[in-house]
Amino acid sequence: MGRYLEIFLVSLKLGLTSFGGPTAHLGYFQEEYIQKRRWLDDQRYAEIIAICQFLPGPASSQVGIAIGMLRGGMLGGFLSWFGFTMPSVVVLMLFALFLQHSTFDAEYLIYGLKITAVAVVAHALSQMSSQLTPDKGRKTIAIIAAIFILLYPTAISQIAIIVTAGIIGAFVYKDQKMSSELSFDFGIGKKSAAFAWVLFFGLLILLPLGRDSVNHMFYSMFDTFFRAGSMVFGGGHVVMPMLEREVVPSGWMTEEAFLAGYGMAQAVPGPLFTLASYLGTVISGVSGGLLATVAIFMPSFLLLIGTLPFWGWLRGKSYFSAALIGINSAVVGILLAALYDPVFTSAVKNSLDLALVLIVYVAIAVWKLPVWKIVLGVISVSLLFTFFG
């Protein structure tokens, strides 16, 4: 029982303090789960990131769920998701109900959180790169991956570079064994995995077919948000325009109402997919918000349950272990590209911004201050500027 409580409380802390979007979340996870708690090592963490890059849905949420499963099986995965996701769900649902006409200006708050996110991601990248790219070959793979992603910033490009890096690794590092202290036991059986795949594809195919005959708002909402969670590669920034095309032309809400939720989703911690919680609440109250939340995250659980049980078996194959060396190097390159765009480019506009990033980075990397305390400090200072600046 103590382990499950720990999983929930740690993920809840991350859900309250992990600002900055999917890439920043990976930095917060690396700080909390690897550097502080030693639940897994950098190598395994990169492998989990690689798995989630292949799957549609919110990558950072899936990484958190997978770590929870590694720590405590399917219940651990659910508790990890619940703690990380619920704070932003609650805030966005309350915003939909009460704050649409608020005059609160979040400019300073968003600015401070973006600056912090740059430092957090840079620190996580430095930690991972030292572990995963120790030689010239792996550093080269990482740099090429970063260049490719910067030139072709699409979800398909991410998958292509991971596959290519895996093929290169399988040939270049075929005689090098991977070492690790932990076993990949996610506590999921193959029967559960098969059932998850059947349920995922069954819902994905059958829900749209029954939409016209059922003709009920909740059924249509579940279909819309389930498809969004099933079909989107690249995380929350990609799902937002897709949801806009679904909910605005259908007449469920106005463009202005959607953009208000879009802006608020950028300012709260946790996964950007919780925009669905806001949208569902606008469409059909609290019950609609809860329904949309369940629908958009359900594919992530089904896909992970269907995929993770086979990871340990694949990892034991020598050719696959060699491929993972290349994949891990590519993950470092992908994070490097993401550090520049969108994390750095959206936050650093002048020398003052860069100076603030360096101050936060020193606080994390040199003075070893906990990231969550830095985030709360940034929020406090931002609110002071908002109300008294």
UniProtKB/TrEMBL annotation:
Residues forming coiled coils: none
Entry's transmembrane regions: 78-102, 108-128, 140-173, 193-210, 217-239, 259-278, 290-313, 319-340, 370-388
Record's subcellular location: Cell membrane
Pfam family, one: Chromate_transp
Record bears the keyword Membrane: yes
Source superkingdom: Bacteria
Keywords for the protein's UniProt record, in alphabetical order: Cell membrane, Membrane, Transmembrane, Transmembrane helix
Entry membrane topology: Multi-pass membrane protein
UniProt cross-references to InterPro entries, sorted A to Z: Chr_Tranpt_l_chain, Chromate_transpt
Keyword field contains Hydrolase: no
Main location: membrane
Similarity-based family: Belongs to the chromate ion transporter (CHR) (TC 2.A.51) family.
Protein's name in the database: Chromate efflux transporter
Organism per entry: Bacillus kandeliae
Gene from which the chain derives: chrA
